[in-house]
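User: Continuing from earlier, I have the next pair ready.

Assistant: Great, send them over.

User: Here they are, in order.

Assistant: Folding the first of the pair now:
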Amino acid sequence: MGKSYGGGCRIIMKNGKLDRINLLKYLMVVLLIIYVVFLVTQEGDNTVSVDTIEKNITKAVKLEGMKKGTTQDLKKYYSLNDYEGISLYIPDDVMSVNEILVIKVKNESQIETVEKAVEIRVNTQEKNFEGYGVEQTKLIHAAIIETRGRYVLLAVSKDADRIDAAFKKSI
């Protein structure tokens, strides 16, 4: 009579030895589950203030070619209002496209509206500079639009990657 190892051991053990292929299969499933849990928990910390995110971004990059925007600028360029927190930097020159927008929405239902407004703004800027603003068009095409939890980021800058990294690190 052969040896009996009980329940789950038979799957991993074969003839009293570890079956490496089955062991690797189970290990891959466990790692996949851990990865999915990691992705789900990366929604972002919704308690961080927009001011904190703004400070981290301004530490990471120089805001050359930009000035602090107002709520009127937000309405003018994005047709948005009534959000929990806003940080807007707009071009300080009509031939510049550098722009940073961080919005913390009051609730999840506002995210889609903000994302659409940001996409419309990027498309408008692209049309405005198409044909004669080669450098500006490159920056617009490399724009980063990122949503994390209740935060939305738009970064149009030669330093867009560093702005995005500071944004992600803040949340």
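And the other member of the pair:
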Amino acid sequence: MNFFSFSGRITRTRWWIVGFLICGTAVVFLMVSFFILLIGLVGMENPDLEKKIAYLLMLIPVCFLGVTYISLVTSAKRYHDIGKSGWWALIGFIPVVGPLWQIAELGFIKGSDEANEYGSSPYVAATAPVVNASVPAPVAEIPVTPQAVSNATPEVNIEPVVVKPEDLQKD
């Protein structure tokens, strides 16, 4: 899956996996930022430490923007899968209602099995190849002639074995 392109479609499973990864990343960012702020409060007298903490805290919004972009891309692709425009992904920015709406719509509504205007179905690609039953499978034709049959069966010469009672006596 291309995390930088808004084109294409993804399945509900992939959307849930990315969502859980995003939530896990957000928890890690919150823990790291809390730890950095805690260290900053303890070491307020050290000016070098303050600069390092300020630089680390400037990375948090950059990481947040990256996670937000990936979230928008995956939501847009899910909206494509259910036949809607990717612009619907912006509904997630509406407080409380937006994320709940997205979880309900993107997490539980199955996309179409057929190709739509946003691309081919990700469900067909994830399953076994579909065989068109109306087209007969190619069959190799082997001509069968008496010559081919006689060449295919080996000749076996079986000679009878005669056992005499004298040969069966023990010494």
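Worth noting for the second one:
The two ends are 85 Å apart (CA to CA). Residues 12 and 107 are 6 Å apart (CA to CA).
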